[in-house]
Design a protein that fits this description.
The protein is an all-alpha fold and 56 residues long. The chain is 88% helix and 0% strand. The protein has helices at 2-27, 29-51. The radius of gyration is 14 Å and the shape is flat. The termini are far apart.
């Protein structure tokens, strides 16, 4: 249960990105793919930074 609670922020980021991409896709189909791609790249960068130990 503690692992699920710890994963809630990541799940909310993914759900929020999906909602924004879906909304953009309702306005224009290509905008949905662009927004989804940008958010996937941003989430990948954040995930990579979280796994990399800080260098002092």
């Amino acid at each position: 249960m503690k692992k699920f609670i710890a994963a809630i922020p990541d799940l909310m980021i993914i759900a929020g990105g999906a909602a924004v991409a879906f909304g953009a896709g309702l306005l224009h189909p290509a905008a949905g793919f662009i927004a989804g791609g940008v958010m996937s790249i941003a989430f990948g960068v954040l995930a990579a930074k979280a796994k990399t130990p800080a260098v002092e």
